[in-house]
What we know:
Rossmann fold; elongated; six-stranded parallel beta sheet; alpha/beta; 12 strands
Amino acid sequence: MxxxxxxxxxxxxxxxxxxxxxxxxxxRAGVSPMTVSRVxxxxxxxxxxxxxAVNAAIAALNYAPNRAxxxxxxGGQVRVGLLYSNPSAAYLSEFxxxxxxxxxxxxxQLIVEKCxxxxxxxxxRHLMAGGIDGILLPPPLCDSKPLxxxxxxxxxxxxxxxxxxxxxxxxxxxxDDFDAARAMTRQIAGLGHKRIGFIIGNxxxxxxxxxxxxxxxxxxxxxxxxxxxxxxxxxxSYRSGLEAAEKLLDLPVPPSAIFASNDDxxxxxxxxAHRRGLDVPGKLTVCGFDDTTLATAIWPELTTVHQPIADMxxxxxxxxxxxxxxxxxxxxxxxxxxxxxxxxxxxxxDGPPG
Length: 354
């Protein structure tokens, strides 16, 4: 993961202050408190020069870190809420792996709360009543304007994950959904496909629009006319993928390839192809997005965009703990956005037109 960018406001230690804080260490080392947190937690993705500077500052200030989150927050246990409402069990599983791992590393208390559609604000209030210090919002809640407005009004620190267009003033971790979808579409076109169907994700999520834009841009770059009949709405759920794939394959001239906005819908497209006796990839190429465990649990295994979901949730926990610490120590922080790399993973579900 790259070092975060953007302006970090520095503050001086108060006269007569007691033990040095993580902010003091960060200021002396010339890095952010989050980088100090990474060094303390033994994270591998810290530049050697930054790591050396932090260790030197710790020694010079006689800073004695205990478990990271306790000292980051000035000695109090950090309580972080994870609010989720996701139709993809595979995505949620990957997200939880990273969140639980980083929560353990940072010695924070994690409270997990599920909410039903329309119940986001009530679930958030329930978490706040339990005394949380901050909250993680994976998709689709990362794009909920009413929920973000509520958290801002209640002064609850939030970090959103996988939003295609993060709200102003909120820290975020994501990949470049536009570029990822563009790259996959160009990969499919490079195999010789001219009729490439696209299944859109949930229209309430900004990442869906970014992926659609990337698909459209790639077609233009490849000199392929955009056919609106080949673009079908989905909801990121398996069932919606079934319905979308049926519509695409019922066209008078069906696509020779289908690119779905997540692995659940791509797996559904493979199932529809099997039911119709279409060999994948001999007669139909199918590609997904996310690279969840589902991608390798079906046959043929999916060619997909690898989104580092677990790493994204780890980074989100790090940011959240750092911002909670800064708030408790009286430091005002600007929001940050970290964009992690994606990769195209080729498996057995793509090939030249049949």
